[in-house]
Amino acid sequence: HIHDLLTTHGLQVAAYVFGHTHTAERAPLTADDETPRYFNSGTWTPIVPQTFDLLGTRERFTFVQITRDPATGAVLTELLLWNDHAGRIEPLPLL
Question: How many Å apart are CA 12 and CA 57, to the nearest integer?
Answer without folding.
Answer: 42
